[in-house]
Amino acid sequence: MKNYLYNAASLQRLSIILLISLLTGSINGQAQSQFTVNGTVRDKRSGEVLIGATLYLKEAPRSGITSNSYGFYSISAAPGNYTLIASFTGYRPDTIPITLTRNILLPIELGAGGDQLTEVVVSARKKNDNVTKPLMGVQKLTTSEIQNVPVLFGEKDVLKTIQLLPGIQSAGDGNSGFYVRGGGADQNLILLDEATVYNPSHLLGFFSTFNSDAIKDITVYKGGMPAEYGGRLSSVVDIKMNDGNNKDYHFGGGIGLISTRLSAEGPIVKDRGSFSISARRTYADVFLKLSSDSSVSSNSLYFYDLNVKGNYKIDDRNRVYLSGYFGRDNLGFGNTFGIDYGNATGTARWNHIFNSRLFSNTSLIYSYYNYKIRINSDNNDINITSDIRDLDLKEDLQYYVNADNKINFGFSAIHHTISPGIISATKASSYNSLALQNKYSLENAVYISHEYSPGDKVHFDYGLRATAFSVFGPGYFYTYDSLGNTIDSAHYNTGQVVKTYFNLEPRLSASFQVNEASSFKVAYNRNVQVLHLLSNSTSANPTDLWLPSSNNVKPGLADQLSLGYYRNFRNNQYEFSSEVYYKKLQNQIDYRNGAELIANENVESQLLFGKGRAYGLELFFKKKVGKLTGWISYTLSRTELKIDGVNSNNWYPAKQDRTHDISLVGIYQASKKWTLSATWVYYTGNAVTFPSGKYTVLGQTAFYYTERNGYRMPAYHRMDVAATLQGKKTKKFESSWTFSVYNLYGRENAYSIVFQNDPNDPTKTQALQYALFRFIPSVTYNFKF
Amino acid sequence: MQNRLRYILSVVVLVLAVYGCKKVINVDLNNVAAQIVIEGNITNLAPPYEVRVSKTVNFSASNVYPPVTGAIVKITDSTTGKTYQLNETDSGTYTTSAFNGTPRHRYDLLVIAGGQQYKATSTMPRNVALDSITFAENTDFNNNKDINAVVNFLDPVGPGNYYQFTETVNRRPIPNIFVFEDRLSDGKYIQQPLFNDSSYLQKGDTLQLNMYCIDQGIYNYFFTLMNVTGNNNFQSATPANPNTNISNGALGYFSAHTVNRIRLKVY
């Protein structure tokens, strides 16, 4: 315990030192002669805060900023009369005259809708954020884009939709996992209101854990991660939940082919606080009914989840938020086998405005994932459980120094407890009860970054994240030889440090504006990952195990350099961007052949280590306004690994190495009533290992494998379409019907290829391709009142 | 247990896949130079003992595996220090009846073929008696009732016991690999159902079930072989050749094991 406290205290000290050293010099001097306007940007009708709204003073164009995750903004300027312009996609911009002779508190409310064209004219200047901001490799999706993109079973899914963006690759049918710029599925930090979601999938990967009803905003960082994020190598998916309407009560819901959703929102105290609740449950066993004509009464296959959020304004300077997620999957196989699993997260946050320029958020975050397996067969009555539990204290501060300088700084301390497996078996069982020792660790970080605009055309965002990861006792810690045999073990007491890894993660991005409509950008960042997901099957199994870095397993490192060219056309109605990246990966993990990952105290002895490299080109073209909106994205890439003990220690393509990846998305507003949409995807098949020869063992055919991942699955392509019919809209009630077809032209995309003896001719072998979904129609009814 | 778990998860996906569709496809697979395959067994039953030497063929070829003839095959009982040369009694099949396999003896195999030497070592574990075979009816994911044989035996106290099971139904071998280790079951009375990929046992069938006590290397071999055959083939992320106990790049295994055999009618 003493060690934890010591670590937290030294973190704070370090962050203060970093801050002071950065704030000395020119920045402080300039700040004195200015006044500040600050406040929160909200939706006029619901009071929901608007994240990423653009605000600037017409008379001082360089003053432009975007509202933060809590809708907060702060703009400083010399005394005088100004016009503040606030705008947000899909909202009517607001023009507010202000007189800066003192600091002003100015809450802003924007009304939805409005004439798209006026919006473009009025706010054209600031519609080119994508060009001017130094942010690279960032993708944002609005809820309306998510609502209109067709998906499997009509179940809106943010994680599926982001896979249509460049550099984000789908892991395939029936898998909500995704790969970002060549990184593995476990290298994505998935945050729901700041809490890590350890298993983002339902039903073995067919759906994601995120109920789109509950989601306000989703941002994906593929490169150039801001210094406030850390912990994963490849990406950050930052998902924010709805705050709820603080003016009126509303209820909504949807009835779909496989699930029903219900939601409620309303004020706790009008204009001071609100709540939002969303729940969803799938109908049991829909797959089984489709797949089999026999009775399915004793099997179960369903999930449910619940999102809850509330917030309350204590006074103009203080607001508190509480948000939580709880989801559970249940999969039962007669009474002989069952597994249930799920995540639970909770976030308590306190926004505090120290003064008009210094915004603070303090979060206490709890994150939990567990699974429980029940086996009841004959004499065997066994339960297997495993869980991961995080407690995280996080502080983020944003200091709006002046129009050209903004400082972000803070710290985070996460305590991880991992229970890798507990087996409880009855006396008559064939198995012994067993409890693997818990793994305790502390993941600390301090960060500081500086958004700096030395001129109209040049913007920098640079920073540093310093991390310290410590593994603690109690427990036995082992060392292994190169073959995985135990050569030593040592016992550590409670709180005794086994190993600490210090890392510095520089983050730098810069943009150089060529003109109003085009810019070049460059970014470099280093990321560190201290938790590794052990998974050696093709799909995401709920039993995949998170393993902290240790005396044997080093934290993974990724260095990424990216360059980009951004260009907007026709008054920013069209966006084009191209980025190239090169990523170097260190301390990557693979497994020994036949690795025992389940209930193995020596699981670290089953691992092999190596390095990786990934590089590619991403092109993105988006039409943002008009009747027809949508985008085309193309990625050309290569991802390779070199692991000691795999493929004769030669480089080989990673499973997710994908030469070409194309996505087309079109959303057409045909009339006031009808919205049509379609997507088409094409990508090179995954790199896989196929046999090259065969032989006989025990009188059976066995296959002979040569190089790792030396073959390719067939190319994947698929088209989905959807049509949404808006029902009569009254003040009190609105409804819509969505009809969709997944895999419109019935392409049989290979899910797996199995090699076997030909059942009709035992002297031959054959390759059998399994495909999952063809022509899946669905209909969903949504309502709101 | 982990196999059962993996099996079930893969069945879920398989059911979905079947609902989708499956078809035979042509995959353009590379040709490879023929590799040597050695399969040798010594048991505690009376000799002869057999070592078969053959070669791999390309995937597209017929399932006819060319025997390797004229090889020199020797087995040394390291415990007694005696070496026995095997005679080629059939093309590629080398046999000996010169000794009786004995538990706890270490056996070394030497095969010289094509100018190359291949070596393997296997120690015959002490025998663990198979008590009995019972039958259990399990409901599979399609709600079919499958009959599975259940092996009943007492695992001796102390880790490091490994078992292999083979089934023959009406004289037809069941093409499934079953291995079991006592890593999570040390000293327990084991009642383990042998789950088949599909329903092979019917009431009234004659079942011959063998339980072998094998060493760790052989367990590793068959465990890793099992990962790339049958239903596991569907799920394994990166199939690889099984971990053999034979040197110099040969495929196959050399196993010294005890045999418990029970023959009965399925009830």
Summarize the structure in words.
The complex is a heterodimer of chains A (785) and B (267). Chain A is mainly beta and 785 residues long. Chain A is 7% helix and 58% strand. Chain A is built from seven helices and 51 strands. Chain A has a 22-stranded antiparallel beta barrel. In chain A, a hairpin with a 2-residue loop joins strand 21 (300-315) and strand 22 (318-333). Chain A starts with a helix and ends with a strand. Chain B has 267 residues and is mainly β. Chain B contains three helices and 18 strands. Chain B has helices spanning 2-20, 216-226, 232-235; strands spanning 21-25, 36-43, 49-55, 57-58, 72-77, 82-85, 87-90, 93-96, 106-113, 116-123, 130-139, 145-154, 162-169, 172-173, 178-181, 189-193, 206-214, 251-265. Chain B is globular and about 55 Å long. The mean pLDDT of chain B is 87. Chains A and B meet through helix 7, strand 24, strand 44, strand 45 and strand 49 of A and helix 1, strand 1, strand 4, strand 11 and strand 16 of B. Strand 44 (691-697) of chain A pairs antiparallel with strand 4 of chain B, so a sheet runs across the interface.
The overall strand count of chain A is 51
Unreliably modeled segments of chain B? none
Distance between the termini of chain B: 25 Å
Number of helices of chain B: 3
Q: Would you list the SSEs of chain B in sequence order as H and E?
A: HEEEEEEEEEEEEEEEEEHHE
Largest interface: A-B, 90 and 87 residues
Alpha-beta classification of chain A: mainly beta
Mean pLDDT of chain B: 87
User: What does the largest sheet of chain B look like?
Assistant: 9 strands, mixed
Count of helix runs of chain A:
7
Shape of chain A: globular
Helix content of chain B: 10-25%
Largest sheet of chain A: 22 strands, antiparallel, barrel
- Strand tally of chain B: 18
Binned strand content of chain B: 35-45%
Outline type of chain B = globular
SSE layout and pairing:
The complex is a heterodimer of chains A (785) and B (267).
Chain A: H1 2-23, H2 26-30, E1 35-43, E2 54-57, E3 60-66, E4 72-77, E5 80-87, E6 94-100, E7 104-105, E8 108-110, H3 116-123, H4 129-132, E9 138-141, H5 143-148, H6 158-161, E10 168-170, E11 178-180, E12 188-192, E13 195-196, E14 201-202, E15 207-208, E16 215-221, E17 235-241, E18 250-255, E19 259-269, E20 273-282, H7 286-291, E21 300-315, E22 318-333, E23 337-355, E24 358-377, E25 380-402, E26 405-425, E27 434-435, E28 439-452, E29 458-472, E30 475-480, E31 486-492, E32 497-515, E33 518-529, E34 531-534, E35 545-548, E36 556-569, E37 574-591, E38 607-623, E39 628-643, E40 652-653, E41 660-669, E42 674-683, E43 687-688, E44 691-697, E45 700-705, E46 711-712, E47 716-726, E48 734-742, E49 750-758, E50 761-771, E51 776-784
Chain B: H1 2-20, E1 21-25, E2 36-43, E3 49-55, E4 57-58, E5 72-77, E6 82-85, E7 87-90, E8 93-96, E9 106-113, E10 116-123, E11 130-139, E12 145-154, E13 162-169, E14 172-173, E15 178-181, E16 189-193, E17 206-214, H2 216-226, H3 232-235, E18 251-265
Parallel strand pairs in B: 2-18
Antiparallel strand pairs in B: 2-3, 3-8, 5-6, 5-9, 7-8, 9-10, 11-12, 12-16, 13-14, 13-15, 13-17, 17-18
